[in-house]
Each structure stands twice: as structure tokens, then as C-alpha cells.
Amino acid sequence: MRAKNISIPLDTYHIQADLYLQENSSPLIVMAHGLGGDKSCALHLYIDFYIEQGYSVCCFDYRGFGNSTGKYKNLVDKNSQLLDWQTVIDYLKKTLNLTEKQLILWGYSLSGAHVLTLASKTNYQAVIANFPHVDGVASVLKYPSLYLLPAVFLAVTDLALSMVGRTKTMKVVSKNRFAVLSGKDSYEGYYSLIPPDQYWDNKVPARIIATISFYRPIAVAHYIQCPTLMLGAKNDSLIPIVQTRKTAQKSKYIQYVEENCGHFDLFHRQFMSTIQKQHSEFLESL
User: Fold this and answer.
1) Is residue 274 domain-resident?
2) Torsion over CA of 51, 55, 56 and 58, rounded to 10 degrees?
3) What is the pLDDT of residues 33-43, one digit of tens each?
4) Is 15:62 a contact under the CB 8 Å cutoff?
5) Per the domain annotation, does 108 fall within a domain?
6) Rounded to whole angstroms, how far apart are CA atoms 215 and 120?
7) d(CA 45, CA 23)
8) C-alpha span between 200 and 220 (Å, rounded)
9) What is the rounded average pLDDT of the residues 85-93?
10) pLDDT reading at 11 higher than 90
11) pLDDT > 70 in the chain, percent
12) CA end-to-end span of the chain, whole Å?
């Protein structure tokens, strides 16, 4: 199925999205990537699967990522990205004459946090949160102590520069682990998602190091009242699995499944078929 390229206005910028519409009135799955990623980073593996299952799909890039425009390139910011999500949702509701009950929100890692947060405020048809960020404080505590102060210094510098419209960037992943994502498997894991013939801009404004600790979907998960499939990765190097389990227990509407894998294995074929089957069974149960 060929995607329809759509441009969704937001302020003076636009959010670029790919829309795959089935001929029937199937539910629409809305997707976006995690921290530092865009649509091209392996999301097609799930888009193709959902299309084959008969679902419509809308996959978008945040402002500043991919072909979406923005004030800052590759800015990772909770409030900005939540606004992007809401803008895409409102656009789809208006142009396709849909309600929230016809939308399924899909997220991975940081976007997993976003869909949980959105579901705590509005009842959608369903939510799928794959290895989601759930507790910024707990995630910061997993950061290598050797690099924590230098990383905070870069973040504070970036925040100061933001007052004059400038940025100080930091690598998303690095072989020596001095990066935003500092897990032992982060460098190889992230690059495994990048097509071999594609350039990936491995840097984001460093302020995310200072702001991520304030993002805690675990604190609002008890408000979720729509069917939610939440997957945890037992060997996750970035998301403390204990906090993932605690978040899943916050609402009776959350169905929790734990995979014996790492944070990036959502896109690796030895685990993907099992995960996709779980997604399919969950969607069929709606």
C-alpha cells in the first residue's frame, strides 16, 4: 500500500506524516518513534505488519525530525512532542471524521511515555506502549556515574543557550556511553535500526538530560481507562524493569507482558514475531 504524504500545520512549522488508509472503516493506528528516532528507523517493520492485518496507519515525525520542520533540529522535549501528538490526533479526527474511540495510539520508548500520558487524559480505542519510559528519576539513576556531571553540564549549557535561540548538542548514543542513551547495548542497538544506506544525525540538544527526570508517566498511569497493552523488556538497559512493572499495576485497564529481551529488540526478528503476535491478539480482543 502506498502512503499518502500529509503535512500538518503547527504554528509556522509542519509535521510530516505518512497515512495508509484501508478501504474499509478499520481502526487507525497512530505511531511515532522514540528518543532521537524518525519514521525511517525500522518503524516500517510494524507499519507493514499492521497494514497486512487490515489496519489503517498514520506514522509521523516530530517537529525538527525527518521531513518535519521546527525551530530546533532534533529537539527532544516532552511538552513539544505531546503537542505534536495532539496536533496529529486533532488533524486526523477533523479530516477523516473520526473520534478518539477509532484511534489506537502506538509508542516505543519515549513515545511509549507519550501515549501513556495521553491515555491518562483521554479515552482512546486502545494504546500499545512498547518498552516505555515510565519514570525519569529511575532512568537517571541508571546513568553512568562517571558521566553524569559532564552530561548535566552540557544540559545546563544548552538550556542557557536556548534563551538566545541556540543549542548545545549531545550524541544520542556513543561507543564510550557518554551520550543521552547510555545503556551498554545502546550504540549497537540504535544503529541496528538505521538503514545501511541512510545517514542518521546522532545528536540532539542536550537539555533532555536535565528535563527527563521530570517526566514520570508512572505518576499518572492510574488515570488510564482505555484498553492498554504495555510491554516491558526484562533486560532493558535504559528503563528500570521494576518501575515498568509498577506502572503496569497502576490501572486495571493495562495488560502487561514482559519480554526476555533488551530495549532495542522490539525491532529484531528473533523477538519481533512474538511481539507482533501479542499486538495482534490484543487488537483482535478490542
Assistant:
1) yes
2) -80
3) 999 999 999 99
4) yes
5) yes
6) 14
7) 21
8) 33
9) 98
10) yes
11) 100
12) 24
d(CA 65, CA 80): 12
Determine how β-strand 228-233 pairs with β-strand 254-259: parallel
* Residue 196 predicted with pLDDT over 90: no
Matching residue, cell 498511569: 221
Give the structural domain span for 85. 4-135+215-284
CB neighbours of residue 175 within 10 Å: 10
Sequence-ordered list of residues with C-beta below 8 angstroms from that of 7, at least 6 positions apart, any chain: 14, 15, 16, 17
Domain assignment present for residue 165? The answer is no
> What pLDDT sits at residue 153?
97
CATH number of the domain that residue 93 is part of: 3.40.50.1820
Question: What single string gives the DSSP state of each residue in the chain?
Answer: -PPEEEEEEETTEEEEEEEE--SS---EEEE---TT--TTTTTHHHHHHHHHTT-EEEEE--TTSTT---SSTT---HHHHHHHHHHHHHHHHHHHT--GGGEEEEEETHHHHHHHHHHTTS--SEEEEES----HHHHHHTS-HHHHHHHHHHHHHHHHHHTTT---EE-S--TTS-SSS--TTHHHHHHTTS-TT------EETTHHHHGGG--GGGTGGG--S-EEEEEETT-SSS-HHHHHHHHTT-TTEEEEEESS-TTGGGSHHHHHHHHHHHHHHHHT-
- Nearest CA to 155 out of 190, 179, 185 is that of 179
137-190 per-position pLDDT tens digit: 999 999 999 999 999 999 999 999 999 999 999 999 999 999 999 999 999 999
Q: How many domains does the chain have?
A: 1
Tell me, yes or no, whether 171 lies in a domain. no
Task: Output the pLDDT for position 163.
Answer: 95
pLDDT at 197: 85
